[in-house]
Amino acid sequence: MEYKLSNLKPEKVFRYFEEITAIPHGSRDTKRISDYCVNFAKERGLRYIQDAANNVIIFKDGTKGYEQSDAVILQGHLDMVCEKTSDSEHNFDTDSLTLIVDGDNLTADRTTLGGDDGIAVAYALAILDSDDIEHAPLEVIFTVDEEIGMLGADSIDLSMLKGKYMLNMDSDEEGIILASCAGGLTSTVELDAKYAKKTGLKVDIAITGLLGGHSGAEINKGRANANCLLGRLLFNIIEEIDANIISLYGGSKDNAIPRESGVSLVIDSSDYDVLSTACDELQKALSVEYGVTDKNIKITLTRDTEGEYNALVGTSQLKLIFLLVNLPNGIMSMSPDIEGLVETSLNLGILSLDEHKAVMGFAIRSSVNSAKIALKNRVRFMAEFVGASYHESGDYPEWAYKRESRLRDVCNDVFKKQYGHDVKIEAIHAGLECGIIAGKVKDLDIVSFGPDMKDIHTPNETLSISSVERVWNFVIQVLKELK
Ligand SMILES: [Zn+2]
User: Fold this and answer.
1) Beta strand segments in 170-252, E
2) 150 touches 398 (CB < 8 A)
């Protein structure tokens, strides 16, 4: 293989990183990258475990003087998000990424780079390969399919591990150490749909132009939720006129704040002007309410044709609108421990209606388990109270903030010596594999960090080369201190 990055430092880190980018390794396509790690271990006589899901664990003894130290876990995920520009002919199943170095920036030609989280794998391999870095016994965990729901972390058996400390290297801002993350689950509410024939004018209403965003990281930005706005509009409409829902749509991912929603109604044509005024008034109100945080919201009303339509009737429609208006959404509470951190929230990301039922799906998150349970119970109770069914899936544990952490103290001391100021300790309102792993290895002391990356999960993904080197120096110093 011809190396493009051979003049970058740290040399071994970039060599392994480049080898990783040469192997296709999107989520659900991890056999090849997993085997690469296994071969790496075999060639160096390191003990390893590869499971059926392609997760890999590699073990290395402590260096001289560290033989009896508490084991340290290094962790990252093997899979990457595969995104490319519309003009790219890259084939993620077969092609190596084409790397581009431009000053301090490392990118891939019109595709994601997989710095998230290939850089963690490269760091860990460089440490495993070294004979001049001092470290305690190492247990290196490479998980698969983090990007599609942390499936590898979920399924991996970690019962044989002895690690007391864990360095997760899946964060993307140098100078910040994460110390907690949210747990979560998906709550789904299903309401029976009862249709009858209704004659009248069909009208289509669309709510568009919202910013949307990630339901964890961006829930605190004051953005509107298109599904909640639709509920509000429907309530305003049925207060004024008779209207029946023919069809309706909202977002399709529980963890994305929905940007669009819409409904088709059948109404008496003489009510068209009243309906039109209701839409205009809400749009005006929203332009004030969201004038700073989400200012391009549009409500568009289109006149369709007169005819006979199957539409929701009676309590079936009323209950749906009731749930849309009254089920909670957005931030429920802020953390008392960490300033600015959302502790508990939910997002009505999914809304659909078919011939049998309406479906509403929420992503619920909290860094406090009991608060997560209380919130899901609130959704369930309200749903069941009106006769809807409730179920949940994808429950994952939080990584709770530890008020005492030796690892965090060591990291801060090392950071301070290297950078001249304290590291920032933060927490995120989204899931990390740390939560799942913390649930599997008793009393594990964890931090999460990584070098600067921009625009991850997009074809503009960029890794800072100089940041990789500084974080490398940080990691090897932390390992040295964990005696
Ligand atoms: Zn990642």
Assistant:
1) 176-181, 183-192, 195-208, 213-214, 243-252
2) no
pLDDT in tens, 143-152: 999 998 899 9
CA distance 175 to 172: 10
pLDDT, one tens digit per residue, over 164-205 is 999 999 999 999 999 999 999 999 999 999 999 999 999 999
Phi-psi region of 80 (alpha: psi -120 to 50; beta: other; left: phi over 0): beta
Task: Round to whole Å and give the CA distance between 177 and 160.
Answer: 27
Annotated active-site residue in 18, 19, 79, 139: 79
Q: What does the angle CA 153 – CA 158 – CA 160 come to, to the nearest 5 degrees?
A: 165
The phi-psi region of residue 57 (left if phi > 0; otherwise alpha if psi is between -120 and 50; otherwise beta) is beta
**Distance from the alpha carbon of residue 334 to the mean position of ligand 1, in angstroms:** 25
Q: Show Cβ contacts of residue 43 under 8 Å, excluding neighbours closer than 6 positions.
A: none
For residue 172, report the distance from its CA to the centre of ligand 1, in Å: 9
Question: Which residue in the block uniquely carries the two structure tokens 């190396």?
Answer: 3
How far is residue 164's CA from residue 93's CA, in Å, rounded to a whole number?
Answer: 38
Mean pLDDT of the chain: 96
Has 146 been annotated as catalytic? yes
- pLDDT at position 217 over 90: no
**Separation CA 445–CA 432 (nearest Å):** 15
